[in-house]
Amino acid sequence: MPKFNRTDQEDEGELLVAKKVKEPDQYRVILLNDDYTTMDFVVEILCRIFHKSVADATQIMINVHHQGRGECGVYTLEIAESKVEQVHGVARSAGFPLKCIMEKV
């Protein structure tokens, strides 16, 4: 049975510490302004899908209205894709052309 001396164990431990785990990429989810979707509906989407408070949702909606876009949050790829799909599905069901996109941070 091989014996490990203290130096071998320390060297192995140092190798494990030196390896870094890569954090998953992050994506910004953004609502885009249009001429048909109501401000109330945008606030509803932000509260319902992104779990924003009414005050935060209202501020984001104002950004969408005045700047043409508003950031809803930053998520991993799968969650960001899911949020975008949810927004499009709820908007279509309500008859609004609201667009939602994601951008890599």
Topology:
Layout: H1 6-18, E1 26-32, H2 39-48, H3 54-67, E2 69-76, H4 77-94, E3 99-104
Antiparallel strand pairs: 1-2, 1-3
Give a brief description.
This protein has 105 residues and is of the alpha+beta class. Helices cover 52% and strands 20% of the residues.
Fold and architecture overview:
This protein is α+β, with helices and mostly antiparallel strands. It has a domain at 36-105: 2-Layer Sandwich (Ribosomal Protein L30, Chain: A). It contains 4 helices and 3 strands; from the N terminus they run H-E-H-H-E-H-E. Strands 2-1-3 form a 3-stranded antiparallel β-sheet.
Distance between the termini: 51 Å
Note the run of SSEs as H and E: HEHHEHE
> Count of helices?
4
- Report the sheet-strand fraction: 15-25%
- Radius of gyration (CA) equals 22 Å
Notable characteristics:
105 residues; alpha+beta; Ribosomal Protein L30, Chain: A; elongated
